[in-house]
Amino acid sequence: MQTEALLRALADPTRLRIVRLLGAMELAVGELAQVLGQSQPRVSRHVGILCDAGLAERRREGSWVFLRAPAPSHEAAILNAAFTRLLDTAEREDAQMADQCADDRRKLNAVRSARENTAEDYFARHAEEWDDLRRRHSPDALVEDALLETLGSAPLGQVLDIGTGTGRMAELFAPHATHVVALDKNLEMLRIARAKLQNLPADMAELVQGDFADLPFASGRFDTVLLHQVLHFALDPQLALAEAARVTRPAGRIAIVDFAAHDREELRERHAHTRLGFDDEQIVKLLKDSGFIPAVPIAFEGEELVVKIWLGKRVDECAGKGVDA
Asked: How far apart are CA 83 and CA 77, in angstroms?
């Protein structure tokens, strides 16, 4: 029985601490070992028991394994939530447990600081090339405000941020969404995004390693899909859009933020851009071919580059194509 397995899994002080920690934020096995003051193999054994009981979920990123509390849809999530409330009460009334939890949280703050230091180091190493790119186009804040205002006219629901990079878009949209999944292929960028998103509620944001040409999600999972400054890296933009369409629910929305077509060839070498922007006809065709109804694009003039927002609404198979984007 699921309840019996769950209770057996929780019959250990270390596993109770792990459940408590994962309720605060996603953690790598090594980070858990650091907080708990135990060996990584020992922590891995505890984690295995919790995962088997549905009290934790594993996800591999390269050589690292990250743990998080189960998704709300998981059958154990309701029992887990009830037990979390019980632990809240126990912590308030049990002085010894309260001291242990406080000590764990202090060590958890050290993990947060280490992540932030890693992110700061990355930004310092890449500051010059990012400054070079930013000076060429309109301020990021203008685009972000317009994107949020445009998409915020309707509920965002489940959001997928494809190519999340530093996690900025996921951070921006999280307060307006029911849940945000931030996806990136690059492990280093996921580390940076994790540092940015680690102060959000643990059940609000999820980080996933994956390729925009082969998204690791079920069809029709998301209400809103973002591709922010990522499509110009695609060898096959049509494949990327087809995958985005596959995971978008009928009547769901997509937003593509990218450069208008330009002739700055040096961006291929310095910033690894595969495409030198896109013209409206290209994006409209990509959207229509992928099953989206395109809206009128929004343009932002810059010093050298024009940034555009292209929006689309997924064709509702029940309503046909008479839906306005």
From this structure: 10
How far apart, in whole angstroms, are the C-alpha atoms of residue 160 and residue 177? 10
Residue ranges of domains in the chain, CATH in brackets: 2-110 (1.10.10.10), 138-314 (3.40.50.150)
Please spell the DSSP secondary structure of 189-229, one letter per residue: HHHHHHHHHTTS-TTTEEEEE-BTTB--S-TT-EEEEEEES
Q: Please give the Cα distance from 272 to 67 (Å, whole number).
A: 32
The identity of residue 322, as a single letter, is G
| Tens-place pLDDT, residues 14-63 | 998 998 899 888 899 999 999 999 999 999 999 999 998 888 989 887 77
Residues shown for the chain: 325
Unique residue bearing structure tokens 């609404």? 313
**pLDDT band, very low/low/confident/very high, at 131 (cuts 50, 70, 90):** low
> At 200, is the secondary structure helix, strand, or coil?
coil
